[in-house]
């Protein structure tokens, strides 16, 4: 059943073009401030609190700025996966970093995923739900209708046994959106292509094999991908701090 997870991949290599404004145009998205803290530090602080000892961070756009910022961190211990030469997308970026992540399961955390906890730690619940024998990936899912910075018809449905499925037809509305946080085993990437590819490619294969599962988030999820989503997230954090 659940084992000890001590490594994570933090995805910071995107271009972040939708976030560009006069106020933050000089910054890559992971360094944009939310609540007085860089987005990447929200992710890393959460991982450190969950017991993650080592985080591999991939970099591409304005990589020097991200590396400089991360040099000051003590926990988790940071390793850089350099994608300056070419963007590898989510799947390709993680595959490149696999030798750094070790032989067992690891967490994956998008830099622009932030949330307000409900009851207890969502990362602790995610770790506790991991079953190494049954799963190749385990996704943290939020209720789409109650999420911030997301407009869409949902990403996944959860079956009664917690396996995930995609929409059966494009018009179907499914209740859950992927939060950008998951656990994966390196075997998820067996037989995957070289170069750039999306995590969706390997997820689809795991879904087909019945080895892709989900855990429902308890809390308020915010996808901080645009200036308007950033402003909405600031309001959410401010409201929570005033309670």
Topology at a glance:
Elements: E1 7-12, E2 33-34, E3 37-38, H1 39-49, E4 54-59, H2 63-70, E5 77-82, H3 89-101, E6 106-110, E7 113-117, H4 122-129, E8 137-143, E9 157-158, E10 164-165, E11 176-184, H5 199-208, E12 212-216, E13 219-223, H6 227-242
Parallel strand pairs: 1-4, 1-6, 4-5, 8-12
Antiparallel strand pairs: 2-3, 6-11, 7-13, 8-11, 9-10
Note down, in words, how this protein is organized.
- The model has no long low-confidence stretch (mean pLDDT 92).
- This protein has helices spanning 39-49, 63-70, 89-101, 122-129, 199-208, 227-242, and strands at residues 7-12, 33-34, 37-38, 54-59, 77-82, 106-110, 113-117, 137-143, 157-158, 164-165, 176-184, 212-216, 219-223.
- With 243 residues, the protein is α/β, with parallel strands linked by helices.
- Helix 3 (89-101) packs across helix 5 (199-208).
- The protein is globular.
- It is built from six helices and 13 strands.
- It has a single domain (7-242), classed as Spore Coat Polysaccharide Biosynthesis Protein SpsA, Chain A.
- A seven-stranded mixed β-sheet has the order 5-4-1-6-11-8-12, with helices on both faces. A two-stranded antiparallel sheet has the order 2-3. Strands 7-13 form a two-stranded antiparallel sheet.
What is the CATH superfamily classification? Answer: Spore Coat Polysaccharide Biosynthesis Protein SpsA, Chain A
**Order of strands in the sheet with most strands:** 5-4-1-6-11-8-12
Structural class: alpha/beta
Note the main sheet.
7 strands, mixed
Order of helices and strands: EEEHEHEHEEHEEEEHEEH
Number of H/I helices: 6
Gap between N and C termini:
38 Å
CATH C-level name: Alpha Beta
Q: List low-confidence stretches.
A: none
Q: Based on the structure given, which CATH architecture is correct?
A: Alpha-Beta Complex
Report Rg: 17 Å
Number of E-state strands: 13
- Compute the average pLDDT: 92
CATH topology: Spore Coat Polysaccharide Biosynthesis Protein SpsA, Chain A
DSSP strand (E) fraction?
A: 25-35%
Count the domains: 1
């Amino acid at each position: 059943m659940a084992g000890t997870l001590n490594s994570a991949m933090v995805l910071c290599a995107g271009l972040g073009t939708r976030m560009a404004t006069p106020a933050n145009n000089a910054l890559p998205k992971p360094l944009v401030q939310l609540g007085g803290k860089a987005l990447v530090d929200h992710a890393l602080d959460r991982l450190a609190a969950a017991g993650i000892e080592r985080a591999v961070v991939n970099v591409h756009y304005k990589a020097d700025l991200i590396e400089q910022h991360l040099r000051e961190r003590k926990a988790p211990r940071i390793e850089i996966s350099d994608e300056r030469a070419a963007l590898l997308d989510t799947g390709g970026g993680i595959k490149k970093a696999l030798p750094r992540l070790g032989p067992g399961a690891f967490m994956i955390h998008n830099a622009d995923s932030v949330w307000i906890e409900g009851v207890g730690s969502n990362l602790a619940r995610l770790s506790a739900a991991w079953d190494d024998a049954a799963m190749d990936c385990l996704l943290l899912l939020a209720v789409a209708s109650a999420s911030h910075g997301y407009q869409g018809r949902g990403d996944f449905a959860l079956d009664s046994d917690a396996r995930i499925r995609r929409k059966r037809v494009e018009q179907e509305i499914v209740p859950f959106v992927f939060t950008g946080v998951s656990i994966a085993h390196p075997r998820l990437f067996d037989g995957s292509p070289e170069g750039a590819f999306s995590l969706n490619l390997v997820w689809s294969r795991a879904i087909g094999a019945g080895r892709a599962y989900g855990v429902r988030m308890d809390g308020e999820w915010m996808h901080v991908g645009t200036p308007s989503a950033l402003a909405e997230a600031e309001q959410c954090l401010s409201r929570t701090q005033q309670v």
